[in-house]
């Protein structure tokens, strides 16, 4: 995490209460009313503000990776692009979010939905990875 002083001036600091006791996803337990600290989501979710952007998802090709229609992705352009990471990329002028696969057969963008086929990236194509997806924000259903 980093200091909020590195945040651009147009990003507002919003501090939300963060309770000391984690919430139990198993059996219910008594609530703890003690607030440990205030949580600034910019500090918690963004390592490098000047290299980070958000994008809204359209489509369902990444559902098995828990990325759904209308989710918001936090994308960091400063992260090292590695095999197996979920990336936002541009292929021939079209933006997409997929899992990057680099192997002996070439470079591929892999969807995480059975209805979609992997996309092979030809060496002569206009292809660029814009950043690595670091967080997925979606509304609970």
Rg from C-alpha positions?
18 Å
Secondary-structure-based class equals mainly beta
Q: What is the helix/strand order?
A: EEHEEEEEEE
The proportion of residues in beta strands is 35-45%
Unreliable parts = 1-7
For the secondary structure, the number of strands is 9
Measured distance between first and last alpha carbons: 29 Å
- CATH fold category name of the largest domain: Umud Fragment, subunit A
Please identify the top-level CATH class of the largest domain: Mainly Beta
Arithmetic mean of pLDDT: 83
**CATH architect. name of the largest domain:** Ribbon
Outline, from the CA principal axes?
A: globular
CATH H level of the largest domain: which superfamily? Umud Fragment, subunit A
How would a textbook summarize the main sheet?
Answer: 7 strands, antiparallel
Task: Give the domain tally.
Answer: 2
Question: How do the strands line up in the largest sheet?
Answer: 3-4-9-5-6-7-8
Count of helix runs? 1
Helix content: under 10%
Core attributes:
mainly beta; single chain; 1 helix; two-stranded antiparallel ribbon; 7-stranded antiparallel sheet; Umud Fragment, subunit A; 2 domains
């Amino acid at each position: 995490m980093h200091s909020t002083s590195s945040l651009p001036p147009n990003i507002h600091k919003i501090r939300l209460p963060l309770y000391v006791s984690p919430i139990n996803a198993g059996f219910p337990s008594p609530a703890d009313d003690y607030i440990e600290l205030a949580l600034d989501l910019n500090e918690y979710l963004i390592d490098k503000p000047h290299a980070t952007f958000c994008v809204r998802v359209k489509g369902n090709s990444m559902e098995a990776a828990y990325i759904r229609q209308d989710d918001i992705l936090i994308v960091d352009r400063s992260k090292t692009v590695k095999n197996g990471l979920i990336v936002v990329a541009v292929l021939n002028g079209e933006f997409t979010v997929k899992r990057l696969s680099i192997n002996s057969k070439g470079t591929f963008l892999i969807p995480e939905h059975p209805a979609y086929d992997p996309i092979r990236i030809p060496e002569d194509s206009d292809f660029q990875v814009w950043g690595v997806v670091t967080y997925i924000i979606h509304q609970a259903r």
